[in-house]
Design brief:
Order of helices and strands: EEHHHHHHEHEHEHHHEEHEHEHE
Number of domains: 3
Structural class: alpha/beta
CATH superfamily of the largest domain: STAS domain
Number of helices: 14
Shape: globular
CATH architecture of the largest domain: 2-Layer Sandwich
Helix content: 40-55%
Strand content: 5-15%
Amino acid sequence: MPERAAVRPDGARVQPVRENETAHATANSTQQAPVEEELDSTFYSGGSYGIEIQEETNVYSDMAEHAAMSFAAGQDDMARSTLQSMVKGNNDPAALRLWAMLFDLLRLQGDHDAFNTLCLEFAQTCELSPPSWGETQNKTQEAAEENDHEHVMIQGTLVGDAPLFNDLLQAMSQGETRHLNFGRLASLDGEAAAKLAKLLNQARKRKLAWELEGAEGLTTRLVKRTLAGQRQNEPLWLLLLELYQYLGKESEFEEKALDYAITFEVSPPAWEQAHSPIPKVKTTSAPNASRIAKPPPPVLQGEILEGKLDAVKALLKPGQECSVDFSLVSRMDFVSATSLSNLIRTSGCSAVTLYHPNRLVAEILRMAGTDRVAKVELSKY
């Protein structure tokens, strides 16, 4: 009998396909299967424990962005919880970027015990060698070597009975200068806030040359815990007002001082500005720079928030290849990362390289598209 043409639902006729034609088509399709275009993974090469991670839209990308945005907003505990929940028992190569972010977050928080526990879990789960705690710590130490006696890195959780306060009190009584870095301070209790506020106040009144670094992020977190009309956390109020004076933020000080007076029914402190430049730019060597004949890139330190990029802008020279070491930038918000992308795009530099941001800052830079206008080079563990 003659073969009947199949009819599609739309009424169009389909030519019959004989058995030998079907076999030929199947063989041909096997030989000429379309090859999926490989996604660009340049941004994460070098930071993936030797495994190349492809950039893709999946739950890991979403969680990485969520954790990075939480950290950038000062919500360290939320970022840590997100990352811990995603890496637990997870040996998927695509999740290695989350492991790397969590390692860096624990470093920034100064939680050595949790870091060591995570190293053991990482080795057992992923069957790979974990990173070492000392790499980032060594960079911090190099930054402090300029004057170890004066530079104080405050990190982790600060409590009222910390030895730090005795050291600062002695330094103040002897009229010594101090450079306090709050870039890695995760949290502090009420007693610590009260002691710190009092020390800063007395140092300022004695006109001592105390400088603060990374205080912008601390003020952002304190603002969220000092609400007008809620008569609680008074030490945090006093610390916030003191930080505003060191940062030269008079309008913010006046507004918060009025809220403080109304909330606690007391006279507010008076404005007496003490200046501290933030962030500070140093010209120490970048990691592995000894092998390069070019001058070492300048190093940024502390937090970069609210789009304040004067320190970076000064380093971008039109027509030149420019580089900046981000290894000591502890935190960067999305507004600043977006502003940085625009700044680089319009700088006129022939090329820009950003060296060794921590993985949380690197994720924010990626989200802001900075990796499309500059080379972002991650450190290797």
